[in-house]
Amino acid sequence: MFLKLFNCGAKFGHMMFLRLISELQVRKMGKSKNINVNKRDVLKWTQPMDDILIDALLHQQSLGNRVDKVFTTMAYENMVNELHQKIGIPIEKGHLKNRIKTLKHNFYECYDLFKGRSGFAWSPDTKMWTAKPELWKSKPDSKKWMTTRIANYDKLLMLFAKDREKKDGAKGGQWASSIGGGLFDCIPLQDVLGLTMEENDMNDTSQTDSQAPSQSATSLKGKKRKAPRIELLERELKSIREAIKDVADAIREGNLIAERGRPRVYTEQEVFAELVNIGIDTQLRYKAYAFLIANAGRVRALFGCPAEERKEFLLQMMYSSEDSAY
């Protein structure tokens, strides 16, 4: 009787223990879900926000803060600060990366559909693609864009068109042309092994046919041993690709730092254009142009000033007795 009671008590205790563990797991999952929801930053992008972002991307690209199709860390820092000031809400680097992916996706979809198709045109007024009705009927895969707007397509062309052309022009099975450009991505794993899968199958088949039936089991074991070897090589290649990408990123950052250390050299065209921008009168413009290009230090001093103060600074340089300091 005592043993029966003991067994019943043990079973009851075991059930209570399992129930307690189950409840703890449910509570833990609930907490983790709440944490994920709290940590996730949901940002709804509007068209004015997209306009500001795309202009910022073009500006950073013109400054040279985009290397091998990748915006540098400095570019993202500048854009985060610029968007925060203009939009008035906190912006993080992750927000920018996610939105850039979306903009790229929409642009690539249009670019792939309409590149080289005569009769289709993007209107900067309506922000939509236009064409004759018969052309839309002949291209059913593009009907979505009859009623879907894509703003800033002309600016997205300047940002991402070259990237798409390079991607389309790449041929599979060839080495990447630059460090960090996906080295080993286009090389079939069978080529690295030095033997195609078809050759493996043929060798296994010929061995099986030439050997006694009792040896077929050995052949099957050999095939099974090849699978872990392939997986091992795949992991090794993946680690090599990641290492090469890290080296490429370091080289890009190093090149960027080296470029920043060198003084900027302004062309004569840039100097003349700046004289027009700051409002130098035509009668004085040629004299100011000759004055500046005669000395590179004067040009650097001019462009080093804030844009709104350059005109006054230039006039002081030209007419001051301290001109020799420049």
From TrEMBL:
Biased composition (Polar residues): 203-219
The gene coding this protein: LOC111312916
Renumbered residue ranges of the record's region Disordered: 201-225
Domain Myb/SANT-like: 44-137
Pfam families documented for this protein: Myb_DNA-bind_3 (PF12776)
Stated name of the protein: Uncharacterized protein LOC111312916 isoform X2
Highest rank taxon of the organism: Eukaryota
Naturally occurring in which organism (per UniProt): Durio zibethinus
InterPro entries to which the protein is assigned, alphabetical: Myb/SANT-like_dom
Entry-linked PANTHER family: EXPRESSED PROTEIN, MYB_SANT-LIKE DOMAIN-CONTAINING PROTEIN
